[in-house]
Amino acid sequence: MKNLSLPFFSIVIPVYNKELHIARALNSVMSQTFQDFEVIVVCDPSTDNSNAEVEKFQDPRIKVFYRNEPGPGGYAARNLGIEKAQGEWIAFLDADDEWLPTHLEKMHVLSQKFPDVMMLGAGWESKSVQKSSIDKYSRQHPNADCHLVTLLEYLQKGLHGSRPIHTSVACVKRSSPMMNELFIIHPEVKRGGDLFAWLKMLCFHKQMAWSNHVGALYYTDALNMVTKSAPSTAYLMSEEVFKSLASMLSTDEKLWLQKYFNRWLRNDWKSNIHRGCQNFNLAAKLYWRGDFLYALVLYITTVWPQNLRKLFGFSGRKY
After folding, report:
1. Using the 8-state DSSP alphabet, how is residue 19 labeled?
2. Which domain holds residue 305?
């Protein structure tokens, strides 16, 4: 039974140099139709006026914590937010995104419909001045009811860029054993740690629930986005990481995870080229067992001249 003195949701928002965006994010939380929550804002030492913007909000449900050094991607800040959370469910919102008004209400309904799951997802809209688009998973399931997504389904959909979860619509249950250091802290990981957190949760719990609503606006042209500047080192797709996840998997799940890692490697390798970042040796990172032909194609492209890469779509154009 739920402790009535504790909030149902704890909302974790990491903040670092988000002066122009954080008020929008917080206002979207305070305007939710479902109001049984606390807000945990974790401020890394910004060089702009982010902290002052946060302090303008005087609602007692907003708890602010300060860290002494910035952490790439806000991963350490999110881990601290999880540590301080009191709610049954922990919801995440990036400081440069915002929620639509009924998001928490619909996630609450989803949690009641599937009481045994430990992770919830929903749709989101990617938005910029030039364009906006709904995530691929939602587009593929326009008339679907709320449903469960297994680990195998998640990996198989992920091969084609279709994921049922994004950081600003992710909810995880505080009682999950995975909550201790959910977000990886490693010197080589400056991006992708949120995707790895959801993958780690699924590898352990084997399923998640998805709600058929668009819950968040993901602003792709926000300022100071890690995804625009930080390079990928491929550590999250390394053999070391694979082995740590494989211990929880069946033989079939391991094979699909290798396929998933090959696509992730490809996308990050191309993204590094696109953003002019120092790149990793793709050929040395590939998984060959169970995905030989695709790995071979990726291997060959690493030795092709740039004009052939463009012809076959490996020019660094963002995937």
Report:
1. T
2. 231-311
